[in-house]
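Quick start: read one record
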Amino acid sequence: MRDYLLVVALILVGGGIVGGGLAANRLLRPNRPTQEKLTTYECGVDPVGDGWAQSYVRYYVFAFLYVVFAVDAVFLFPWATVFSAPGYGMTTLGEMFVFLGFLAVGLAYAGKKGVLSWV
């Protein structure tokens, strides 16, 4: 129970420090709102038109494919170190071919759907 009390005490102290900093900021900052300060702007430019903009789903798919292949690269480095260990060679080789097979099927599916076209 003593360890839990230590964790609770650290959380309370951390929350007190953050809350104290936010309270000090609110008390010490100048607060002079004007109509010009309250208008919305983007990068210093006055807004024109409405705030709705259409974005393409394709950009999200590109980001998702990047994450998939970044994860692939993350798994390749530990595999290379385990592959050199005695007794694990053929097992890790088979597991990596299964993993790369799943990635190849996903890449083929993305190519069939036309996701990889850059136009």
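The CA atoms of residues 51 and 62 lie 25 Å apart.
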